[in-house]
Amino acid sequence: MAITDIKAYAHLTEEDVENLAAELDQIRADIEESRGERDARYIRRTIQLQRALAAGGRISLFASSSRIARVAGTAMLATAKIIENMELGHNITHGQWDWMNDPEIHSTEWEWDTTSPSVQWKKSHNFIHHKYTNVVGLDDDIGYGIMRLTRDQRWERWMIGNPIYNLLLGTFFEWGVALHGVEVTKYRKGEKSRGEVLRDLKVIGRKVGKQVGKDYIVFPALTGTNWKHTLKCNAVANFIRNYWAYMVIFCGHFPDGAEKFTEEEFENETRGEWYLRQMLGSANFHAGPVMAFMSGNLCYQIEHHMFPDLPSNRYAEISVRVKDLCEKYDLPYTTGPLLRQYWQSFWTILKLALPDKYLKAPSDDAPETASERRFGRVEPTPGTPKRGLRTALRERARAA
User: Fold this and answer.
1) Residue-range domain boundaries for the chain
2) What's its EC (predicted)?
C-alpha cells in the first residue's frame, strides 16, 4: 500500500536525506538572493499580455456575427483565461511575487478569474495539499473526494463511476475546484459541521455570482444583438480553460511514479523527508517554453512542490539542479511526454473503478500504488556504486 518509511523506500540513509535537504535549501537560498528586476519584468509583462488577450477577445466578440471574429475572440479569451489561472492566479496566490511588495500582485490581494474564491483556494491548495502532499487520509486532492486514485482507498460500489466522474470533473473543472473548498470529505467524516459547510457555500456563491454575471450576462449583453454568439463563445473559452487546467494538474499528480504516503510516515517527518516526499509524490511533463508558460510552469511540478513560493519563471533553471541531485542520490526524476503522463493517470482512474480482486498487480507493487515492501525480494547488484531508488526500481523491473 502507501509508503510508510520514505528513507527505506528511497534507499537513503538518514545522513543522505540530511545532505539532500541541505543542497535543496541552498538552491532556495540562491534563487531568493538572485530575484530581481528580470523576474519583476517577467510577471508585469505576463499581466500585460493576459489583459491584452482578454480585451482583444472581448472586443472581437462584439462582431461575433462573423465566424472569424467568433473563432478569434474565443481563442484569445480562452488563452487569456488559461494564462490568468495558471501563470498568474495560481502562482501569485502562492506568494511567488510577494517579495516585490506590489499590492496589485500580492498573494493577499489577487482574486483570480474562476469560480473558486482565492481565500478558500489558498486553504485547500496552498496549505492542505502542499503540506500533506499525497498523504492518504490528509490530502483531499487524492481523488478530490469523488474518485479512487490509490488502492489505499477502500473500494466502494459508487467508485465504479470513476471514468464518468473524471469526465465531469475535466469539463466543469473550475466548479469542481470551487466545491473542493467545501471539504466534503471532512463533512462526511463528521469533522466539519453543516453550518461551516453552509458558510463556505455562501462565499462560493458570491464568487460564482460575479463570474456568471461577467461571462454570461454583462459581456453578452454589451454585444447587443450578438449576445447569443457571445454567450456561447464565453462558455467555450471556459471549457477550453477547464480541460487544459485539469490535464496539467492530473499530469503533475497522478502518473505512474507519483507515490502515496501514510499518516505514519508524515507524523515522523523531518525537513529532508518533506523534500523527499515532494520529489517522489509529484511528476513533470516535457514542455518547451510556450507550453511551460501556458501550464503556469507546472510542467515542473516536482520543482513547484519543493519550492511553491519561488517565482515560476525560475523553475526551468531549478530543474537542472534538481536533476543533478537525482543523479547524485540515485533517485528517479519522474517525467515524460504530456500525453503519456495523462494516459497513465487516466489508466489508473479506469483500473481503480474496479475492486482490487480484479486488478493484476499486488497492492505494494502496482504502478499507481507502491510501498517499501515492493523491494523485499530484490538483492543489490554486486560491484555497483551507491544503490538508490532508481537502481532498485530498475532491478525490480528486471526481476518481475
Assistant:
1) 4-327
2) 1.14.19.-
